[in-house]
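step=encode ok
step=design start
structure_in=
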């Protein structure tokens, strides 16, 4: 497709007068090819070749013109891909630049505690990969995780309870403190999908932006995740965490008794550690009441 569109129409290859079109062989006027009879331009014969254009170029028209159009379309596709890749790279670069600034701010923030290497906690930040609702690597592969010191203390208590009551099991972290630019990306991703109740606007901010929310699940001793019925960021009724909702989902066959039991074991531990379950998302736990956080706390990494 990317060859010379006219490579197959060079006169020296298929239309050379010396190869089959010499007037002395088949087009000498004295033998019956007088222009007024068989080669009149009004009938459609090209004087330079002696070939009827409609016959030589088939029912689809001139091959050169068709190939030129194809070549032009190919160039347009290349231009589109170039612009798309350029825009994607620019967006990715912008994410990375903003993420670097946020990380630097978190390192300076006295209220931020890094929880990346904690024993009893596996960190798998979903927004540092493309396995999320946006399909974008929002965190630019940044694997470090932070939380506000108030919720970090409660997370420590929860890890200790897991180790005591379920030796070998671990908590598994999907998200913690979140930069504000990432909140805007998430909000944009659900625009027009009727999911605004699940993702706070960047203007107001999520409790994640305050470092006061954790997205958690649990894993078995072999590293596999416990079956909780849905994946992370599943905006479906099956993600609901209220007892009544879960019971009704079991009756309806949307969840199994084992899945609900797994949720409730983890929920019991986290709540005893002082964390608050978000009713619409079984994996989301806050470090304090939302209204209190908005009134009394500042976002992490924005000062």
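sequence_out=
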């Amino acid at each position: 497709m990317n060859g010379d569109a006219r490579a197959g129409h060079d006169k020296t290859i298929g239309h050379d007068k010396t190869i089959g079109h010499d007037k002395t062989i088949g087009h000498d006027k004295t033998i019956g090819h007088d222009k007024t009879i068989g080669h009149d331009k009004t009938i459609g014969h090209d004087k330079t070749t002696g070939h009827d254009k409609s016959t030589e170029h088939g029912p689809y028209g001139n091959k050169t013109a068709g190939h030129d159009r194809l070549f032009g379309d190919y160039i347009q596709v290349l231009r589109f891909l170039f612009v798309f890749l350029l825009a994607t790279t620019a967006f990715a670069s912008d994410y990375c630049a903003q993420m670097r600034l946020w990380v630097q701010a978190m390192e300076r923030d006295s209220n931020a505690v890094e929880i990346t290497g904690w024993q009893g906690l596996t960190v798998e930040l979903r927004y540092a990969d493309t396995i999320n609702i946006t399909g974008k690597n929002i965190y630019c592969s940044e694997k470090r995780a932070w939380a506000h010191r108030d919720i970090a203390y409660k997370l420590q208590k929860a890890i200790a309870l897991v180790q005591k009551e379920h030796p070998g099991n671990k908590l598994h972290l999907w998200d913690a403190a979140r930069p504000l630019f990432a909140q805007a990306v998430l909000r944009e991703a659900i625009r027009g999908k009727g999911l605004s109740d699940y993702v706070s606007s960047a203007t107001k901010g999520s409790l994640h932006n305050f470092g006061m929310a954790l997205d958690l699940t649990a894993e078995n001793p072999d590293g596999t995740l416990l079956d909780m019925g849905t994946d992370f960021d599943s905006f479906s009724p099956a993600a609901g965490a209220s007892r009544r909702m879960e019971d009704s989902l079991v009756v309806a066959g949307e969840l199994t008794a084992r899945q609900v039991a797994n949720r409730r074991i983890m929920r019991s531990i986290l709540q005893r550690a002082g964390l608050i379950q978000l009713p619409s998302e079984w994996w989301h736990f806050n470090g304090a009441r939302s209204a209190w956080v908005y009134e009394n706390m500042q976002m992490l990494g924005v000062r």
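step=design ok
step=annotate ok -> Strands lie at 112-114, 121-123, 146-148, 170-175, 213-219, 276-277, 284-286.
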